[in-house]
Amino acid sequence: MIPVSVIMPLYNSDDEYLRKAIDSVLKQSFTDYEFLILNDSPQDDKIRRIIATYNDDRIKYSENQQNIGIPQSYNKLVDMAQGKYIAIMNHDDIMKPNRLKIQYNYLENHPEVGLLGTGYKKFGEINRFKAIINPTKHEDICAYLLFKSSVHHPTMMYRRSILEEHKIRYNENFISLNDRQLCYEFSKYSLLANLPDVLYKYRFHANMASKKQKVLIRKERAMFHKLWFAYKNIELAPEEIDIFDHYTTYGRQKVKDMHTLEVICHTLEHLSSINYQRNFLDKEAFRKICGIYYTKRCLNAICNGQLNISKLINQTPLPINKPLLKFCNMLLGWRK
């Protein structure tokens, strides 16, 4: 069996970015892998010409007859893969030279882990030059999944045996959140982990799907919440669901009235309470995450809504950052 299959779908790829992405894969210190490249923009002849310049037997290039979309292309690549492990690669990013070696060795030594991510560094646009280290422990990764993607998709390496045994595939209803759904499915059958090592460079640029599909991504986020709540058999009031979808997990939405903040508070307290009763996630990990998100929305309300939140700070049972919130509340109190 081939140890690793690296899979990379392409769509209208930039020439320079694509070459750098391919070069970073071919220059890996770990060399025993197949490199599956699937072109989802077959009308683009330049991609075909670029791939033809590489004389490496590990590259296996194919094209869709017509554009089928991101999740469908990932599923097609997964079906083609022959490796023990599958590693994801974006067509505009860069792998660090030891990425495959470090992830492969970790998974070989930790059979209980089914899906593994790494730290990554943003690059490309101004003010994007920073490293991101996601939670490393399974309990924390799972607790975060309701709120955000806690394993960065292009850093993933996962066991093909778990995909096959449990018939896991990318959710083709999602364009952006299929990685979160994949993590969630893996979490049912194995542990998840992230390495703190920064082994990947994630490029920011004007043509990113996340920049062009903001409205659709927000709809997908709400759909994921709905699926998550249904699987956990959690019932929230319609107003709680609406506020959770559009305010609680979306930091760019401005909280300008006390009622919205109160519903955010109640919803997070409600979720934390349900988890304490039913223990479907690590109790302290999930409670901590709820506290972190409530702290963020309180800061949002103080700054954008000019709200005095002294009462809510003192009453909530969630583990919020009270000193910070009280200081900010006092500092901006002159606005009222």
Structural domains: how many: 2
Taken as a percent bin, the fraction of beta residues is 15-25%
Number of helices: 14
| Average pLDDT number | 89
Tertiary shape = elongated
Ends apart, CA distance between termini? 68 Å
Helix coverage percent of residues? 40-55%
CATH homology superfamily of the largest domain: Spore Coat Polysaccharide Biosynthesis Protein SpsA, Chain A
For the sheet with most strands, the description reads: 9 strands, mixed
Q: H/E element string? A: EHEHEHEEHEEHEHHEHHHHHHH
What is the strand tally? 9
CATH class of the largest domain: Alpha Beta
- Gyration radius over CA: 22 Å
Low-confidence stretches: none
CATH architecture of the largest domain: Alpha-Beta Complex
What would you say about this model in short?
The chain has 14 helices and 9 strands. With 336 residues, the protein is α/β, with parallel strands linked by helices.
